[in-house]
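TOPIC: backbone geometry
CONTENTS: sequence, C-alpha cells:
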Amino acid sequence: MVETTKSGATPLEGDGKRILMILGTPKSGSLCHALGEAYAQGARSEGHVVRQLKLGELEFDPVLRGGYDQSQNLEPDLLEAQRQIHWAEHLVFVYPVWWGGLPALLQGFFDRVFLPGFAFKYRERSHTWEKLLSGRSADLLVTLDTPPWYFRWIYGAPAHRQMVRTILGACGVKTRRLTEFAPIRQSSEEQRQGWLRRAELLGTHA
C-alpha cells in the first residue's frame, strides 16, 4: 500500500533498490507525470522501493536570494527533500526541456537544495571540492518539442550537459541513462503509448 503524501513516501520497504523520483515540472497531469508513473510501475514490479517528489506540489521559494553569501532557511518541504535524497540509492529525474534548458522550478530546486555541506564541500586553499552525493546513480527522462538530433547537433544539448556534468556530476551522482521522448508536439497517441511502455521497461532495469 502506498501512502498519499507530497513526497510519495512508501512506508513498506523491502530488499529492492531505494529509488527517489523527482518530477521537475510545475504542470499537473503532464506527459512527464505519466512517464514517471510508468517508470515507477516497472521498478516496483522488480521489487524496488520508489518514492516521489512532485516539485509542483511542494511549497518553497525557488530563488536563492543571497547566493551562497548568506544563509536562507530551508522550508519544511526542502528539508524533507534532502532527507529523501540521502535515503535514495538511485535518483530519477523526469522533466521537460524549456527554452533549451531546465524549467525554472527544477533549477530553483537545485539552487535551494544542492547546497554546500549537502551536495558538495569546498576544500580550503584549493579550487576543488568534495562530491558529497557520491555513490548514487541517476536516470533522466526528458521530454522535448525539438527533435533530438536537432537539439544535440544544432543547439549543443545545453540542458543535458548541465544536468549530467555541471549539476549531478559535480556532486558525485553518476548519470546512467538519459532517455529523450521527442518531439512531443507532433506526437500521436500511438507514439505516446509507446513512450509509456518504454518508460516502464526502463523502470524494470532501474
